[in-house]
Amino acid sequence: MEVVAGKGARRCPCRDHNVTGKSLDRTRVPRRYEACALHNYYPAQGNGSQLKAFNYAFRLVREYPAVERGLLLMGTVGVGKTHLSVAILRGLSEKGVPCLFYEFGSLLKEIQDSYNPISKTSELGVLAPVYQAEILVLDELGASKPTDWVKDTMMNIIGTRYNDKKLTIFTTNYLDARRAPTEETLEDRVGVRLRSRLYEMCKTVHIEGDDYRRKLDTQQI
């Protein structure tokens, strides 16, 4: 695969990058993102951070299972974090690697719903696949209000995967440095202890750029 800034990645004609819908269904990737792949991620012209992020994602897929750390894709909204995380799952699914995708808020909601007496599942029933997935994407880390329960749940999930040496890919809109006095950092949202653990579990990849959704809105006028 060849990467060209502003033009994305060119497919190698000797390899079919299509993954069956059935395979993607098993990963729980939302339909909105099911077309996301490495070959259709387009780094903006002159945007070194997006090109670097693509290269990290590409190398992870190429080198797995000889990979010790996951990725923490960090950046403001609309810079392609979720696209890249799903593209990694797609690439690894092609290699037969069991993968799972969860938006963190949705996962918390499923756990809370399991507490309902009429629920047909249990907390462990929700969390077991999350603990056991060979590769897990947790999208939108830090987006949920950081109550004690949310922080404890995050620590439980991430701590379990950390201890089991399971590879995890995170995306977050929260940065490590404040750009304004009132802005919250990732550490503010997840706590000092968990942010420290993420440094060990993942390579932090900062992605910069304009919100592509805003560009789409402008183009449609």
CATH architecture descriptor text: 3-Layer(aba) Sandwich
Largest sheet: 5 strands, parallel
Query: What's the mean pLDDT score?
Result: 90
Helix content: 40-55%
User: SSE order, as H and E?
Assistant: EEHHEHEHHEHEHHEH
Total strands: the figure is 7
User: Could you say how many structural domains there are in total?
Assistant: 1
What is the radius of gyration? 18 Å
Q: How does this model look, in words?
A:
The structure is a single chain. The protein is built from nine helices and seven strands, in the order E-E-H-H-E-H-E-H-H-E-H-E-H-H-E-H. It is α/β, with parallel strands linked by helices and 221 residues long. It has a single domain (2-219), classed as Rossmann fold (3-Layer(aba) Sandwich). A five-stranded parallel β-sheet has the order 4-5-6-3-7, sandwiched between helices. Helix 2 packs parallel to helix 3.
Task: Give the SSE map.
Elements: E1 2-4, E2 8-10, H1 21-27, H2 48-63, E3 70-74, H3 81-94, E4 99-103, H4 104-114, H5 123-132, E5 135-139, H6 148-163, E6 167-172, H7 186-190, H8 192-201, E7 202-206, H9 212-219
Parallel strand pairs: 3-6, 3-7, 4-5, 5-6
Antiparallel strand pairs: 1-2
Helix pairs in contact: 2-3
